[in-house]
Here is the input.
Amino acid sequence: MHEFSGFPENRKGAPMIRSELLEKLAEENPELKPDEIEKIVDLFFNQISQKLAEGGRVELRGFGAFSTRQRKPRTGRNPRTGESVEVPAKRVPYFKPGKEIREQLNKD
Here is the structure.
C-alpha cells in the first residue's frame, strides 16, 4: 500500500482535484495507459456511490468507511429573503476516517 506523501508545495492545503489524482496515479503506475487509469478511478467512485445509494456501507481498511446518515425534516431559512422554508428529510453521505488516517493527521 502506498503512503500518501501530501500535496505539492504550491498546492499544500488546497483540495486535490480529480485530474491531479489521475496524474499522481499515472506517475506511480507508468505501465498503465491514462484511459485505463481513468476507467479504474471511475469504477472505484461509481461502486462506492452505487453501494451508498442502495443504503449500504463501504469500508476500506486502513482508510475509512463511507456510509449514509438520515437527516430529519426541518425548517430552514432562505438566506436571501429570510423567509422560512421547509427542508424535507434526506440521506446524506458520511465518511468516518480510519485509525491510520487519524494518526497521520495528528503527527507532530
Notes: The two ends are 22 Å apart (CA to CA). Strands lie at 58-60, 64-71, 74-77, 84-87, 90-97. Residues 73 and 89 are 4 Å apart (CA to CA). The chain has three helices and five strands.
